[in-house]
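Hi everyone, sorry if this is the wrong subforum. Our group has a chain we'd like a structural model of before ordering constructs, and none of us has done structure prediction before. Sequence below.
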Amino acid sequence: MPSVAYSDLQGAPVLITGGAQGIGEAMVRAFAAQGARVFFGDIDAARGEALASALAGQVCFQAVDLREEKAVCGWIAGVVEALEGTPVRALVNNAARDPRLPLADCTADAWDDLMALNLRAYFLTAREIAPHLASPGGSIINFSSCTFYLAPAHMTAYVATKAGAQGLTRALARELGPRGIRVNTISPGWVMTERQVRDLVDDEARAFIDDRQCVPDLLQPEEIAAVALFLASGASRAITGQELLADRGMCFS
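Answer:
Right subforum, don't worry. Here is the predicted structure as tokens:
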């Protein structure tokens, strides 16, 4: 895919949650290619360390359980200490799980666990990093999902978390806006990550994608990463409190 260089991301500190695989990995690689100082966290230590090794000298990985407040606060504090006063340019809240769980099987514990990762972690990272974001110029990017519009069956808890991410974006955009900090949402369509292709994308799914998308080409993680680069850069300085649907027109059609 065509590449765009954002000179203002060169050397800029960027934090990415859930960066060890899928869309998160694509974003880690994309920001590193821009010359940003990338700090990424993920619960999968093996994959995170492998990615950090592959991008040696360009990124810093920390294994972290984002469902735990103490772990989140410790990770952010470590990043801030390492930066020695350099303001953070962008926080990308990407980490999430999307289990298929029928309503009758969704226990309170399962609901709370998903809320902790998919929504509370976004709040915690934003709260902890907000005092250290570039002011003006800082950017928070929260991930929602096209499922907010499609509302598929057996994903009630997941869809609720993604609706919450959009509400969080709007509230943070208003609260942090006076400091020149922008907050936006990316809502991807059905992205062909390794896990999606392996576990979920069969012939029926491909037929659904062809039918729903305006442009039928399969959506790749690198294309979502390109949207994140734009929202983190000064090229999007007029945009805040908004949602960008990166779904090839799946929800439009």
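For your construct planning: The chain has a mean pLDDT of 96. The CA atoms of residues 53 and 190 lie 29 Å apart.
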